[in-house]
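# nightly structure sweep
# worker-07 picked up a monomer target from the shared queue
# config: single-sequence mode, recycle default, output format = structure tokens
# input follows
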Amino acid sequence: MFTLIGSIACMILYLFKGEPQLWLATTMFILATVGFSGSLVFYDSFLPLIVTEDRYNSVSAKGFTYGYIGSVILLIAILLMGNKPEWFGFADSQGAYRLGFLMVGSGGLVLHNTPSNFYQRTKERPSQKKLFPMDSTN
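# output follows
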């Protein structure tokens, strides 16, 4: 849910064209930040459900690594569009950077749905797993 809020808020930033929409940009920036920060809590909570304890660090590090690599590739693409807008059919760089908000937000939506779809296809839902097998009350 947090990732969804952050992604949609980021995509709405596409509508920001200047000072008259400053209230919109500020509100969406705050919502996107809350969405991102909140999603990290759930990112960390999924770890025990998908790997054994001895692999926590390795899998977490790979997740962050792939995330940063993807972010840098997207940043380079957006900066290239902004610096050479004529290559991509934009009249000016503002349209290219605005499109960048849509690209970042839609990427978040795709990455949000990937784990959700994976867990819906598995036989045992994460919520059905016992987090503490020795505890009979769980």
